[in-house]
Design the sequence.
């Protein structure tokens, strides 16, 4: 039995063809994945199915109803979770859920069975404002809201972007249980482990379906995009050995660092060191305190107590000096989208006191290397996400800082682009730049020289990936992380 | 109906939880009312006068005493020549100078007022007050009893104490109700578009019309609360009497609030971001309301062309109607003209807003 | 370093689809429309005359009023109550009632009692209408008075043609600058906060003052441009030029622009959302404007309200600019205002720099 049928759908925005003759069908209670790079047309397709957009040509049926003529029938049977958090941040968890329940003419109690598996995890925060929840909990709540009216079709647009691995796993385990309720799930995701959880996937690229099949089929067929070969650090080994032999110099030294907001200790007594030229992975679940710690190291926040030195300067008193010696790229995209590529480079280089002719020369070199020269005068806002991130990283090391801080630099980026991104990171490390990076991708964690895992504001493990794996007796970092993160108690405060 | 109520409750929570905005929403009417009621007046008072005379005799002396006794004038200094007085006026040390002619008392002397004419209205009023203070009594030298009693009996209708609050209370109502209803409604809808929650609302089986109406209801109530605040304040704090029937004042206000809400809905259909909605409300709504509604500046002194434009500015009719109903205390039949125009405008705008509301994301 | 930051700000303003147009069109619109609107001139007072005497002399008075340019003669209703209902219907503004025996009283030397009743909902209009009418009546009752009044001459300094537009154009300058230099910077920093780019700037070694200056200077240039446009339009459309030294006008304008852009930045430093920033800004703008003496004389305010004018930059600006523009005042005439505005402005500028926190 088919639940969703799409026949020859095309949709253009101006001159851009977002969807080009797309056809697919999804069976009842199937878990169907929609994958493809940023801008492939996934969101457009979802919006068409949700009756939010009208197609230029072709037709689509959801649960047997036509998306154009039987709009109201579909809207009764559909659960939809858009890419952005679709919650009211100033309402509490309970209020959000009740509101969405009433919206669909039902009550929380009536739909409780369907959402129980998910909602029970956040139920104890039911009086907390949704805006104060961590990314993972927000997504659980959003999912509960989309499910409370027991829809027969659930559409999820990248539901796990910015969510830590443990929460992601939990979320997908819950999605698995929905099969018993006969709910069809269509989801888009950039994570390969999530793709593998789907029964069938469709690969969408430039508005066209490139292939539909089981995850393994699609991932093998398009391996060059989804499963790029592991980065070869051959070239790097040399550099690594140089670094290791040449210096045991610490560029970051932190002792007993604490940051408290009221009684809440976001960072609770952490101590660690990072050596020059290292790639240091700073891992932790949502709300474990990573970003706060990073803000203290980069001089955005004052520590409550404890000491630290970055590039030889005290983080408490010499934060403006630190800023001259570091680069930073934040979670949220951090270039000016209304300036062109070259203008952004020029601005940030200028801020670090570089001369005009040096800037001009290095800009040419950089754009050449990134094969970006033709986009020199494009507005940054018009670039695809992956390019923006590569550019932002290049800008953050443009002034040759001794350390660069990267806060979830690859969130929402597809595998191929992520790989290119990491090549840039290795290149920077080769040049002696220390890289301090946070990420939710555990495959990226394996790329690091050393990693630390933060749980509840404390560092619960630190060492090379191999050391940690053997210490805890697991195959990969993902398992180590899951093991440690599940010990967290913080979310219950 | 249950959906509807839960919608309204949700919307009210949004409003109540944004403390700073709430503070401004209620602080604004109160501050405005107090300012217009107590601080701002167009009265003539404390005019700084320079006396120009070469010699002080009994008549000039008496004139000076009389002037300084009046609440209108403060004598700041005495100078011998008019050019010195002029210099004082130029450097804003004085507003007007009174020049007594040579040997004033002896030969039925002449008198000259030198005024700072920058503000023509004020200059005119200063002169006529000074004339009244000085001329009628002093210049006649008390020879003529005939003038002891004035032949004129002036009666200021509706506003015997000449308070500017009488004129401004209806204007403040017109401005604030429009601003709160139109601006706040449009922003709150556009914010949902921006945050992405609108997508989820649209995907739900709830009728779009209901989403919109439910959004408007809390602002409707808020507007009513503010209306009451203004009316109560004007009655008990500013002592502006509510001459007309409160019933009709409220009814006409309701029509006007409805009109403002429809305008807000229209704006929210056009605007895609909060910034645009804000600027649209500020530029397209606020400016014409303040300038062309007769709130501050009388419409009849404008050139014809602008008078035509002001004919489509809704607050114009509301403010006119309120001035008549509240201050003059006339019956509803006297403001039928305004009420009919307001009702037609409301009907047109509301229909437009509802027809144009997008059930999908694109137009 | 500040060069690059400035370039960025200028580019961002230029790239914005809306701002450049706003910066050009807004002052033009204001200068073309508002001088016509913002006239407090009392015109078109409609008068009704109730003549209860019906004598030749009373009709003389009626003709005298009818022929005055100041009034629009509406009619001669039969009774006072009929005239009142005309006022209620907004058909007329003032009623004058000539008592019975008006001519007899005049000849016997008694003082007749003429009643003037004015609709005073709009206080100024009522008062001015009534005072004009009483002048006419007084001189009719007692022709001697004319002789007495003729001994009083009035010399209007400066605004000789009693041109209300001349009075209002400095005020318009103030309003335009306040809106342009107040609201745009207020939105600016909050905008960067909402976009997240401010965090990127905060981890760079940019000194606070450089960042704030780079934000202020563009608005300074905008203010310069806006003032120039306004002055040119005033000359082109209304033939109104500045009596005093233009340099002084620019000096005051620069100070005021700096004040308001600093205020805007301070507000946006403390606000989380654009809506908040706009509302708070609006609140301050309205209060500063109403208490500045732009529309109403500050000296008539009660003393507590008058005290606030000492910290009101608009008040100093308006006083000084009117002095220079209308009266042709020189620097020493406005010394006090310049000093006061400059000190207020430097306090705000310092506050703007201090309130911007790179390290919490």
Sequence:
């Amino acid at each position: 039995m088919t639940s969703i049928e799409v026949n020859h759908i095309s949709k253009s925005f101006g001159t851009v063809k977002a969807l080009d003759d797309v056809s697919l069908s999804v069976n009842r209670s199937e878990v169907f994945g929609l994958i493809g790079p940023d801008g492939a047309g996934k969101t457009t397709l979802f919006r068409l199915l949700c009756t939010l957009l009208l197609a230029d040509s072709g037709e689509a049926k959801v649960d047997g109803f036509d998306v154009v003529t039987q709009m109201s029938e579909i809207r009764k049977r559909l659960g939809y979770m858009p890419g952005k958090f679709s919650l009211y941040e100033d309402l509490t968890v309970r209020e959000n859920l009740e509101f969405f329940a009433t919206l669909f003419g039902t009550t929380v109690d009536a739909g409780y069975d369907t959402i129980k598996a998910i909602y029970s995890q956040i139920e104890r925060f039911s009086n907390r404002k949704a805006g104060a929840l961590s990314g993972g909990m927000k997504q659980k709540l959003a999912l509960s809201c989309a499910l409370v009216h027991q829809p027969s079709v659930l559409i999820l647009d990248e539901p796990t972007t910015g969510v830590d691995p443990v929460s992601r796993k939990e979320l997908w385990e819950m999605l698995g249980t929905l099969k018993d309720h006969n709910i069809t799930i269509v989801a888009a995701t950039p994570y390969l482990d999530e793709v593998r959880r789907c029964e069938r996937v469709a690969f969408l690229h430039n508005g066209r379906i490139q292939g539909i099949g089981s995850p393994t089929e699609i991932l093998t067929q398009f391996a060059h995009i989804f499963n790029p070969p592991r980065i070869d650090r051959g070239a790097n080994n040399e550099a690594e050995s140089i670094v290791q032999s040449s210096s045991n110099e610490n560029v970051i030294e932190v002792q007993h660092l604490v940051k408290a907001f009221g009684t809440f200790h976001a960072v609770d007594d952490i101590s660690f060191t990072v050596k020059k030229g290292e790639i240091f992975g700073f891992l932790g679940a949502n709300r474990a305190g990573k970003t706060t710690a990073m803000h203290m190291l980069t001089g955005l926040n004052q520590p409550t107590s404890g000491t630290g030195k970055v590039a030889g300067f005290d983080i408490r008193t010499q934060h403006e000096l630190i800023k001259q010696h570091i680069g930073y790229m934040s979670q949220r995209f951090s270039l000016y989208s209304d300036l062109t590529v070259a203008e952004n480079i020029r601005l940030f280089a200028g801020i670090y006191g570089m001369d005009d002719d040096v800037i001009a020369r290095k800009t040419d070199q950089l754009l050449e290397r990134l094969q970006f020269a033709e986009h020199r005068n494009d507005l940054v806002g018009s670039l695809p996400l992956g390019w923006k991130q590569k550019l932002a990283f290049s800008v953050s090391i443009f002034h040759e800082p001794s350390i660069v801080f990267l806060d979830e630099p690859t969130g929402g980026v597809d595998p191929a682009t992520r790989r290119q991104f990491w090549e840039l990171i290795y290149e920077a490390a080769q040049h002696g730049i220390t890289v301090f990076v946070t990420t939710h991708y555990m495959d990226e964690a394996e790329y690091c020289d050393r990693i630390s895992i933060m749980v509840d504001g404390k560092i619960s493990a630190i060492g090379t990936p191999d050391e940690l794996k053997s210490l805890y007796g697991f195959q990969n970092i993902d398992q180590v992380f899951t093991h440690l993160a599940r010990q967290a108690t913080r979310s219950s405060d | 109906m249950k959906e509807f109520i839960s919608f309204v409750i949700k919307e009210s929570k949004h409003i109540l939880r944004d403390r700073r905005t709430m503070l401004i929403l209620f602080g604004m009417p109160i501050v405005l009312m107090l300012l217009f009621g107590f601080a701002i007046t167009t009265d003539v008072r404390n005019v700084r006068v320079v006396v120009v005379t070469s010699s002080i005799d009994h008549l000039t002396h008496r004139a000076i005493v009389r002037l300084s006794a009046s609440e209108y004038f403060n004598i700041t200094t005495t100078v011998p020549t008019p050019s010195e007085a002029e210099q004082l006026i130029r450097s804003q040390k004085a507003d007007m100078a009174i020049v007594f002619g040579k040997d004033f008392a002896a030969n039925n002397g002449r008198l000259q007022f030198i005024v700072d004419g920058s503000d023509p209205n004020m200059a005119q009023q200063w002169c006529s007050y000074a004339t009244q203070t000085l001329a009628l009594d002093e210049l006649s030298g008390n020879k003529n009893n005939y003038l002891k009693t004035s032949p004129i009996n002036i009666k200021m209708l509706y506003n015997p104490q000449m308070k500017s609050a009488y004129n401004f209370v209806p204007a403040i109502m017109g401005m604030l109700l429009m601003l709160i209803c139109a601006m706040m409604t449009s922003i709150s809808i556009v914010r949902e578009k921006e945050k992405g929650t609108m997508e989820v609302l649209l995907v739900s089986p709830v009728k779009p019309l209901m989403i919109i109406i439910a959004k408007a209801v809390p602002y409707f109530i808020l507007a009513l609360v503010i209306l009451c605040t203004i009316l109560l304040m004007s009655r008990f704090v500013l002592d502006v009497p509510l001459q007309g029937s409160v019933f009709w004042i409220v009814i006409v206000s309701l029509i006007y609030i409805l009109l403002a809400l429809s305008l807000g809905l229209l704006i929210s259909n056009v605007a895609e971001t909060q910034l645009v909605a804000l600027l649209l409300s500020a530029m397209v709504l606020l400016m014409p309301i303040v300038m062309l509604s007769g709130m501050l500046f009388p419409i009849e002194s404008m050139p014809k062309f602008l008078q035509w434009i002001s004919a489509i500015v809704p607050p114009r009719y509301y403010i006119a109607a309120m001035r008549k109903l509240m201050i003059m205390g006339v019956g509803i039949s006297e403001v039928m003209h305004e009420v009919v125009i307001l009702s037609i405008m409301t009907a047109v705008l509301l229909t437009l807003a509802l027809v144009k509301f997008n059930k999908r994301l694109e137009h | 370093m500040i060069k690059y930051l400035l370039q960025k700000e200028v580019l961002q303003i230029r790239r914005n689809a809306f701002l450049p147009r706003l910066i050009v069109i807004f002052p033009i619109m204001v200068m073309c429309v508002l001088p016509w609107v913002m006239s407090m001139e009392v015109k078109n007072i409609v008068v009704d005359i109730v003549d209860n005497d019906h004598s030749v002399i009373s009709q003389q008075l009626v003709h005298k009023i009818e022929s005055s340019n100041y009034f629009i003669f509406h009619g001669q209703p039969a009774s006072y109550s009929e005239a009142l209902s005309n006022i209620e219907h907004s058909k007329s503004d003032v009623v004058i009632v000539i008592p019975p025996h008006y001519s007899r009283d005049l000849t016997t030397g008694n003082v007749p009692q003429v009643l003037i009743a004015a609709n005073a909902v709009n206080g100024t209009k009522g008062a001015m209408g009534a005072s004009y009418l009483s002048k006419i009546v007084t001189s009719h009752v007692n022709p001697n008075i004319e002789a007495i009044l003729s001994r009083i001459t009035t010399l209007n300094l400066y605004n000789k043609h009693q041109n209300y537009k001349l009075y209002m154009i400095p005020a318009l300058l103030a309003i335009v600058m306040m809106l342009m230099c107040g609201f745009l910077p207020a939105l600016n920093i909050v905008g960067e906060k909402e976009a997240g780019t401010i965090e990127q700037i905060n981890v760079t070694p940019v000194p606070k003052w450089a960042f704030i200056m780079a934000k202020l200077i563009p608005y300074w240039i905008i203010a310069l441009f806006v003032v120039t446009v306004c002055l040119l339009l005033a000359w082109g459309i209304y033939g109104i030029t500045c009596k005093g030294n233009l340099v002084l006008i620019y000096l005051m304008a620069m100070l005021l622009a700096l004040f308001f852009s600093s205020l805007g930045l301070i507000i946006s430093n403390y606000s989380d959302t654009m809506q908040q920033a706009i509302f708070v800004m609006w609140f301050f703008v309205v209060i500063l404007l109403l208490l500045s003496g732009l529309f109403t004389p500050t000296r008539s305010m009660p003393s507590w309200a008058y005290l606030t004018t000492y910290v009101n930059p608009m008040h100093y600006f308006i006083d000084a600019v009117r002095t220079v523009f209308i009266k042709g005042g020189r620097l020493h005439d406005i010394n006090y205002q310049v000093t006061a505005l400059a000190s207020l402005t430097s306090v705000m500028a310092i506050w703007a720099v201090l309130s911007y926190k790179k390290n919490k």
